[in-house]
Sequence to fold (109 residues):
Amino acid sequence: MRWRRLAKSLQAFSSHTALFCFTLLLLLKLDHHIFSSWWIVFFPLFVFHLIVARVRFSLPAPSAPHNRHIIEVFIKVPAVSLKIVFLPLLAFEITILVDNNVQGSTTGK
Fold:
């Protein structure tokens, strides 16, 4: 049980660290203190999305309610899985990252 708690703490720490790094890099880039690519600035945000996706999709499903009428309502109302929404968005971000890196290397930047 201790290892699970440690893993959750590590995931929370790493996600907050990624957001902090993104914010810091964005501020430095907008103030012209760093002159790196925008992809380097936004890389911590991509890492944050990967961490959130890993945590979100590894959670167990919530337990069913004990009231039978509520169960019937849940069965009648279809729920949209977040995987259907989030994974294409993550794939799109990775595609843009790879595409811009390929274009940047061919133009000599």
Notes: Residues 2-107 form one domain. Residues 52 and 106 are 33 Å apart (CA to CA). The chain has one domain: 2-107. The chain has a mean pLDDT of 76.
